[in-house]
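ok new one. same drill as before - structure tokens go in, u give me an amino acid for every spot. 701 of them this time. try not to just spam alanines like last time pls lmao
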């Protein structure tokens, strides 16, 4: 047995490896002293054999298999492609070699008889994030199907007994469930061809005694299968095993003789609490995942035409909308659905990616010129992976969509999905999108995906990545948003190739006060589109004041998705003021560290971002408070010894402003220590529903 340790800034991983045998993780936790004796560490956690266990008790380790009696799901399940009825092939993988340095290890297992090898990488990056990936190589003579493609296999340290997972639906993303890990474990799969509205491939394990957390994510934009299996029968060593894999659909990954399959990465991190965990994921995304940051510039304020005009598009209406947008301080005008082919509603024309001569008799040129004259840049909506049965593309190529030959082709939102594994499909899409970007000055694409994938298509995501990668290489200056009916495809795989995501179609500010904090446990605010929608909200029907909608939208990548012509003069003024505030504070919001603010009233949501001595907080009340004088808002993430000037950026919320004790003093600013701000907090009027305050802090030198 040999031991290898990897160290991050505050983290150590210790692996135990035996050539011809198994590989296991024998330590995952706080950084160990340099002279820790790894063999003793392993001995301290080893288990003796007990009753009712195989004579050589199985260790699930990093590549669990059934061969020695472990009862869980093997990480690598192979079906002989030419003899599928024989079921899964019995495997016997043994460690054949490994190599490591202080932050990286790769381990290879081989099943000599099958000629199949598994290669696993673990890397510590950005100080604390552990990235894991796994390739499966078929050097043998048989053709196999790999049922799910494993990424992360993690024997869970026993101190983690709590689990938080996420589920969701359209317009209601990322609903959190917390449970104690019980013997039945946990299993989730997407099956819709995308991660889905639950961002289902995120999870957080916790140690309830200390608050320590382990957050894990599969960076993959297609189907996934996640499972935690507990050692209920006691055959193993008592540890539960977490597996995150690509797949989970009804068709596996084909692995013919002589080929190899590269998988997707999973990432996990350890942190003392959930705020710190979020900050680690944010830092990692900013530094290592998102396309090179240098090129971005500040996140421009958007006006999106969808909830302003819907499908009622005309050149004159859009020009008028652009004029109104510019007068609010908008910096980017995004033309949503309805500009192409014969698309006048959501029943036709997906696939026909040329400008509609009916809506734009002179092409997009005049509108884009107007947008530029007004000092904005121009963005465009596309949904490339789809085709409407009523489209020229479908009439020409009825075989290009995902379908089961000889069966019906059920639609969703009136549309079918193109088969992205086909080269001709990818070439067509690239050439249409490339032409659009060459012929028009488009600075931004909103890339949508509004149909689930059925029948199941395991190679679809690679095809999607390939088109996106080719387009980005040809047009590196274009920013791209990933949208999938809102937040249906939000993951580090897509964020490696895009600049932001659309977290939800639901722009209702009260819903957003749940949805944005939920996503921001893993994603920083600058990648979360955050728009001021109309009132009443088209999805929930709720009416909310402009002041409330605008304050909530500041905490994200701000935009407007409503028609300014349908707002009152006062509302437009209020919105313009908040857009100006966003511009003033986006440097902090988009580069700083996010903290959640706990408040005794569950209907008060608080968030705060600190950056280089400045900070902006949001405290928002959604219900009628049970008490008149709500408890003070306690801030977070400040230097306890430093002093800060605290102001409440105006405009103030219309009703609550009358309950402020000393308005003039708040205007001049109060000077308080970090200790006082974090310990006692600020008594703000938060009695009435739809009240939100922004709190600004500047550290005094
Ligand atoms: C999806 C998106 C919306 C909008 C519509 C247009 O639902 O999530 O934001 O772009 O498509 O059809």
């Amino acid at each position: 047995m040999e031991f290898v340790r990897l160290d991050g800034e505050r983290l150590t991983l210790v692996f135990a490896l035996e050539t011809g045998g198994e590989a296991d993780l024998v330590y995952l936790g706080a950084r160990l002293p340099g002279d820790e004796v790894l063999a003793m560490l392993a001995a301290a956690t080893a288990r003796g054999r007990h009753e009712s266990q195989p004579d050589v008790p199985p260790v699930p380790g990093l590549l669990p298999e059934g061969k020695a009696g472990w009862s869980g799901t093997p990480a690598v399940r192979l079906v002989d492609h030419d003899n599928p009825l024989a079921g899964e092939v019995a495997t016997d993988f043994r460690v054949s070699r490994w190599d490591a340095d202080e932050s990286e290890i790769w381990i290879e297992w081989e099943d000599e008889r099958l000629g199949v090898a598994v290669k696993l990488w673990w890397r510590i990056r950005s100080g604390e994030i552990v990235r894991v990936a796994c390739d499966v190589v078929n050097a043998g003579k048989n053709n196999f199907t790999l049922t799910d493609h494993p990424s992360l296999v993690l024997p869970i340290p026993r101190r983690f007994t709590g689990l938080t997972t996420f589920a969701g639906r359209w317009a209601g993303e990322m609903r959190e469930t917390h449970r104690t890990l019980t013997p039945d474990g946990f299993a989730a799969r997407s099956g819709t061809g995308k991660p889905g509205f639950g961002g289902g491939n995120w999870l957080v394990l916790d140690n309830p005694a200390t608050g320590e957390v382990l957050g894990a994510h599969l960076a993959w934009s297609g189907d996934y299968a996640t499972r935690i299996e507990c050692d209920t029968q006691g055959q193993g060593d008592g540890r539960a095993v977490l597996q995150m894999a690509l797949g989970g659909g009804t068709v596996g990954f084909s692995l013919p003789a002589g080929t190899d399959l590269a998988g997707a990465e999973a990432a996990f991190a350890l942190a003392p609490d959930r705020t710190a965990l979020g900050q680690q994921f944010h830092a990692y995304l900013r530094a290592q995942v998102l396309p090179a940051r240098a090129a971005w510039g500040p996140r421009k304020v958007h006006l999106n035409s969808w909830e302003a005009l819907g499908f009622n598009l005309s050149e004159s209406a859009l020009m008028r909308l652009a004029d109104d947008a510019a007068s609010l301080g908008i910096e980017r005008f995004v033309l949503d659905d309805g500009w192409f082919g014969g698309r006048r509603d959501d029943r036709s024309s997906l696939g026909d990616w040329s400008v509609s001569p009916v809506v734009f008799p002179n092409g997009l040129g005049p509108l884009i010129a107007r947008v530029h004259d007004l000092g904005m840049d121009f963005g465009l909506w596309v949904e490339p992976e789809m085709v409407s049965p009523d489209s020229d593309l479908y009439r020409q190529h009825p075989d290009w969509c995902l379908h089961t030959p000889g069966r019906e082709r059920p639609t969703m939102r009136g549309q079918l999905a193109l088969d992205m594994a086909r080269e001709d499909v990818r070439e067509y899409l690239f050439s249409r999108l490339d032409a659009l970007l060459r012929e028009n000055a488009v600075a931004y694409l909103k890339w949508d995906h509004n149909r689930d994938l059925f029948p199941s298509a395991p190679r679809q995501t690679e095809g999607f990545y390939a088109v996106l990668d080719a387009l980005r290489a040809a047009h590196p200056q274009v920013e791209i948003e990933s949208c999938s009916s809102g937040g249906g495809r939000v993951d580090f795989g897509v964020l490696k190739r895009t600049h932001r995501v659309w977290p939800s179609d639901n722009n209702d500010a009260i819903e957003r006060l749940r949805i944005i904090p939920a996503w921001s446990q893993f994603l920083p605010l600058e990648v979360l589109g955050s728009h001021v929608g109309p009132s009443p909200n088209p999805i929930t029907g709720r009416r909310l004041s402009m002041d409330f909608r605008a304050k909530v939208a500041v905490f994200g990548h701000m935009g407007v998705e409503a028609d300014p012509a349908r707002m009152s003069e006062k509302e437009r003024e209020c919105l313009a003021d908040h857009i100006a505030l966003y511009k003033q504070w986006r440097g902090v919001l988009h580069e700083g560290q996010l903290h959640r603010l706990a408040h005794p009233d569950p209907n008060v949501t608080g968030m705060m971002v600190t950056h280089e001595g400045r900070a902006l907080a949001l405290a928002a009340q959604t219900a009628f408070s049970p008490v008149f004088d709500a408890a003070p808002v306690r801030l977070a993430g400040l230097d306890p010894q430093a002093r800060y000037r605290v102001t409440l950026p105006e405009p103030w919320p219309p009703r609550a402003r009358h309950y402020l004790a000393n308005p003039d003093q708040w205007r001049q600013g109060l000077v308080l220590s970090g200790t006082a701000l974090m310990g006692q907090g600020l008594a703000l009027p938060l009695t009435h529903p739809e009240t939100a305050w922004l709190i600004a802090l500047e550290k005094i030198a």
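The mean pLDDT is 96. and btw The chain is about 20% helix and 30% strand.
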